[in-house]
Write a structure and sequence with these properties.
245 residues; alpha/beta; TIM Barrel; 8-stranded parallel beta barrel; globular
Length: 245
């Protein structure tokens, strides 16, 4: 079975109260790794030591675009100390092709600097990147304009945009070190625990395996239960769906 990580944005409400206690609970659930979405004023050294103690692999970290573009030296320094190899831009939104072109140009510069430091820059999509610039999806345009940029394809948002997830994934089989998995309620259309929604998660995972994706990353953004309970249900259900322990 492919290793499974948790995007900690899913449990940010409890991370804010007790970051390391939350990491302990995530480890106890059986997650293999974590993807950060903030550090809650902890040092890179302390976080690294805690993750080592808990046996949690550091898969990646979501870093706001503004920090990647405007404070990259400090970002690289922190991530190197943390032992993280993947810097993920989690969100960007612009209105015009010229603005996206400018953003891509800046990402090319950041990509080079991050590569020179021995790390990789990755972009995480939402649904708006499947609007078109003339006749091309914004996400395709970005990945074409920034050839060294990797993709963290969020399967939920691809589906939300009305695009076939598996056929889209297959276009980027050399550029997807990990994918985001979350399930979708039909009404209202929002995320839910893996296995509780309408998405064909098993099909997405099979495609991920076929194209050499290294990590499956569970994320959830809407809840009817406490967040920790939801992400534990998601992990249990994912393992049942794909035949894990």
């Amino acid at each position: 079975m492919m290793p499974v990580a948790l995007q900690l944005w899913s449990v940010k409400d409890v991370c804010e109260k007790d970051f390391f206690g939350t990491l302990e609970k995530v480890s106890e659930m059986g997650y293999d790794g974590i993807e950060f979405a903030g550090y809650y004023n902890e040092s890179a050294q302390n976080i690294k030591e805690k993750c080592t103690e808990l046996g949690l692999q550091i898969v990646a970290s979501h870093i706001p675009a503004e920090k990647i573009l405007n404070d990259l030296d400090n970002v690289i320094s922190f991530e190197k100390e943390l032992g993280n190899n993947y810097i993920v831009c989690p969100y960007a939104s612009y209105d015009t092709k010229d603005e996206w072109k400018s953003f891509a140009s800046k990402l090319n510069v950041a990509c080079k600097k991050i590569e020179d430091a021995g790390m990789t820059l990755v972009y995480h999509n939402h649904h708006h990147e499947f609007h078109k610039l003339e006749d091309t999806y914004i996400l395709d345009y970005l990945l074409e304009m920034v050839p060294h940029l990797k993709a963290e394809l969020d399967t939920y948002w691809i589906q939300y945009a009305g695009v076939d997830v598996v056929s889209y994934m297959s276009q980027y089989d050399n550029r997807t070190p990990f994918i985001h998995l979350k399930d979708m309620k039909k009404e209202p259309m929002e995320s839910t625990e893996i296995g509780k929604g309408v998405l064909d998660i098993t099909r997405f995972v099979k495609q991920a395996e076929n194209q050499g994706v290294e990590w499956l990353i569970i994320e959830q953004e809407a809840f009817t239960k406490p967040s920790l309970e939801s992400v534990e249900i998601g992990l249990i259900n994912l393992k049942q769906l794909i035949g894990g322990d």
